[in-house]
Specification:
3 domains; Elongation Factor Tu (Ef-tu), domain 3; 23 strands
Length: 392
């Protein structure tokens, strides 16, 4: 009975793996095939990315400065116009008549003034001959002064009438692009019209407004105090296409206590017109550039309970887990500030199939089972080749 118990225990021990057979050893996971890259020194830009809104430097609503019927429109919608260019015409005839009336009053009062001055000189001559009373001379002198004031008022009326007549020609207050027409010929316009005639926006140059978190502002301000020109790039909403390149302009003078951000503005030449008012863009602000920093592909960086880490390939073809500290990234490569040095080989592919100290194969190397680390190739039908098929 004792011998039977011993045999039974031995069988259980063998079944549990206490004595591995060649077949059990074959069940172990073979070394994984991994991709690698070398940690290299490179210049890495330090950037901040935010969503911004395009804003024109100047946006002006063109309105009439006096009441009248819209007589003519001299612009095309979407046209680029220059400052001072005539855009529309208010019916000028009432204002031409007002100017003519003012000029007539001025001519009449000037004639009266000249006659009064002649009489004044005559009276002074008679007074010198003691032919008239001094009071009559004083009265005539006062009349001349009164007429001089009347003439000055008439001249001001003429100037006002001429100014009103010039206002009938509506000109562009700024250079820029006109929008859609807000009034038609024959409409009666007044200075109080909310929509005006058309809106002009200055699109070259043009600004982009965005917000930066408060904790990122000091780094930008430090660079500005050093006199640095910070380049800014505007991408489309997908972030794939560069729309324009410009430079950082300024911060707002207050922060938003609700969001903890500070508004900032960048200016773009926008010569090609890719930016237009109220457009949403992705803004990338380059704050600095790290010179000759150690970089690795972003695919080599992994994250775990111990923080960020990479697998370094040792000369013995094993993977060594190395905790690292990361710096900025450009989306393709990341800066490693500690843990990796230039020239180290890091594992970029297949790291999810290995552990610290695991043996690995490189692509093209022959494994212990006689196969290479490459995946089996497929024929045109998508089926394994005959030598790869399993026996029935």
């Amino acid at each position: 009975m004792l011998a039977g118990l011993i045999l039974t225990a031995l069988a259980i021990w063998l079944f549990a793996g206490g004595g591995e057979s060649g077949r059990d050893q074959g069940r172990r996971r073979p070394p994984a095939t991994v991709g690698t890259a070398e940690a290299a020194l490179a210049d890495m830009p330090v950037t901040l990315s935010q969503i911004g809104t395009v804003q024109p430097v100047v946006q002006a609503t063109v309105r009439t400065q006096l009441a009248g019927v819209l007589f003519a429109i001299e612009f095309e919608e979407g046209q680029q116009v220059a400052k001072g260019q005539r855009l529309a015409q208010i019916d000028p005839r009432p204002y031409q008549l007002a100017l003519s009336e003012a000029e007539g009053n001025l001519a009449r009062d000037r004639a009266q003034l000249n006659a009064a001055r002649v009489d004044l000189e005559r009276y002074r001559t008679l007074l010198a001959q003691d032919s008239i009373a001094a009071q009559q001379v004083d009265t005539q002198a006062a009349t001349v002064k009164q007429l001089e004031g009347t003439v000055e008022a008439d001249a001001a009326q003429v100037g006002n009438a001429r100014l009103n007549l010039s206002y009938t020609a509506i000109t562009a207050p700024v250079s820029g692009k006109v929008g859609l027409r807000q009034a038609d010929i024959g409409n009666y316009l007044t200075p109080g019209d909310a929509n005006g005639i058309v809106v002009i926006t200055q699109t070259s140059p043009i600004d982009v407004s965005f917000a930066l978190p408060q904790d990122q502002v000091p780094a930008v301000q430090a660079r500005l105090r050093d006199g640095a020109v910070l380049p800014v790039t505007a991408h489309d909403q997908n972030g794939d296409t560069v729309l324009a390149k410009g430079q950082f302009l300024t911060f707002d003078n207050v922060s938003d206590i609700a969001t903890g951000t500070v508004k900032a503005k960048a200016r773009f030449a926008n010569a090609e017109g890719n930016l237009f008012p109220n457009q949403f863009v992705n803004v990338t602000l380059r704050v600095d550039t790290l010179k000759q920093a150690v970089t690795v592909p972003v695919t080599a960086v992994r994250h775990g309970s111990r923080g960020d880490f990479v697998f370094i390939l040792t000369p013995e073809k094993t993977a060594r887990l190395q905790v690292v500290e990361l710096g900025p990234s450009d989306g393709t490569r990341s800066v490693v500030t500690s843990g990796v040095k230039a020239g180290d080989t890091v594992i970029t592919e297949g790291a999810d199939r290995i552990d610290d100290g695991a043996s690995v194969n490189l692509p093209g190397e022959r494994r212990a089972d006689g196969n290479t680390g490459e995946r089996p190739r497929r024929d045109d039908g998508g089926k394994p080749r005959s030598r790869d098929r399993k026996a029935p």
